[in-house]
Design a protein that fits this description.
The chain has 9 helices and 15 strands. The strands form 4 sheets. It has a 6-stranded parallel β-sheet with strand order 5-4-1-13-14-15, with helices on both faces. It has a 5-stranded parallel β-sheet with strand order 7-6-8-9-12, with helices on both faces. Strands 2-3 form a two-stranded antiparallel sheet.
Length: 261
Amino acid sequence: MTDYEAAILDVDGTIVRGGALIPGADQGVRALERAGCDRLLVSNNPTTGTDHYGDRLEPHGIDVDPTRILTSATLSASYLADTHPDETVYLVGSDALESILTTAGITVTTDPDEAEVVLGSFDKSFSFGMLWESLQALENGTPFYGTDPDVTIPVDGGSMPGSGSILAAMEAVAGREPDAILGKPSAVAAETALERLESDPRRTLVVGDRLDTDIALGNRAGMTTAAVLTGVTDRAAVEEATGDLTPDHVLESLGDVGSLL
């Protein structure tokens, strides 16, 4: 018997990197299945909904129930629908995120004068003009949220700027931080994940490659954490980590998760 009844798994940098399966990741997923651990994939990718990762992982022999996937996009849509119903959201983000928000019943605008809420996120078309409009939208204390804090995103051959980079620019012109960032490591993400799994945090394992998101989320919520070295974190970073950023375990890859079960 394992000590864990459920596992929260990061995706990019933990299971896949770019379009490639990380070696051993499929073995790790199967080890969790054999141990009877319920699995939930939680990604800070703000451009995807629940179907994306199922389609992405299926060719690698990993079956994922869409109800067992959370992304910062779906977390943000759910949170805004609950806390700001019938309010118009000024979005700095992708077309895919806009579609996820509108599907959740949220009215989205690109007119800063119509902004009742501001949501910042990853957007490849981010420009000086959009930053200027963000400044207008954020005037007079408009509620301000971010999908996720990831400054960079791991891709084949390196990294690219992520939502955190854009949010930093928006923060700078507005002179204030977001009221909340809704993806990992937020309490919103942790509570939603535990509710979806119906698991005791003391018997829940979090595995991911980012100390400031995956490991911080698990530690703050009282879960057991394991950092993998297949993404943005190396052993030097682990050795320098303090407080909530310190993992309980370090694994070369998700393929070694069986050693914890």
